[in-house]
Amino acid sequence: MTTQRKPARRYASSSETKRTNAVETAAKLTQLTDRARRIGSAQGPLVPVEALMTIETDTWVWQTVDRKVLEKLSHRLVLQTEDGRRRELFMTNGLDSAMDAASRIVEFNNGVVLIETLDP
């Protein structure tokens, strides 16, 4: 015996359009903003998540990394764009490989490549 689930979205019970004035609109927006802040703070800080799968020429490529490899990584390369955004590119084993990769990236991009050491 299965139970019927409620839909994920709420739908208006009538097809009438409800118009609001500036005060009602501001109040609704304030409620929505407060709710978003409450839920966001309850979830904690955001963490970037890299894709574990890429698609190359109609084939799916799954990426996995052995824990031993992760433990050997020593430097992180971060691209800082002209508008100030940061994007983590990848991690390397050793400063020499990080410097080599950063110099090659700078040749093709106008941003700044930061090399950060990883905490042991």
Q: Care to give the gist of this entry?
A:
35% of the residues lie in helices and 22% in strands. With 120 residues, the protein is of the alpha+beta class. It has a domain at 65-117.
What does it look like?
The model has no long low-confidence stretch (mean pLDDT 77). The protein is of the alpha+beta class and 120 residues long. The chain is elongated and about 65 Å long. The protein has a domain at 65-117. Strands 4-3-5 form a three-stranded antiparallel sheet, covered by helices on one side. The chain has a two-stranded antiparallel sheet with strand order 1-2. It contains three helices and five strands; from the N terminus they run H-E-E-H-E-E-H-E.
Question: Which terms would index this structure?
Answer:
120 residues; alpha+beta; three-stranded antiparallel sheet
Helix and strand arrangement:
Elements: H1 22-43, E1 53-56, E2 59-62, H2 67-72, E3 75-80, E4 86-92, H3 95-108, E5 112-117
Antiparallel strand pairs: 1-2, 3-4, 3-5
- Mean pLDDT rating: 77
CA-based shape: elongated
Distance between the termini: 54 Å
What share of residues are in beta strands? 15-25%
Task: Give the structural class.
Answer: alpha+beta
> Assembly type of the shown chains?
single chain
Total helices: the number is 3
Largest sheet: 3 strands, antiparallel
Share of residues in helices: 25-40%
Radius of gyration over all CA atoms, rounded: 24 Å
Low-confidence stretches: none
Topology pattern, helix = H, strand = E: HEEHEEHE
How many E strands? 5
Cross-sheet strand order for the largest sheet: 4-3-5
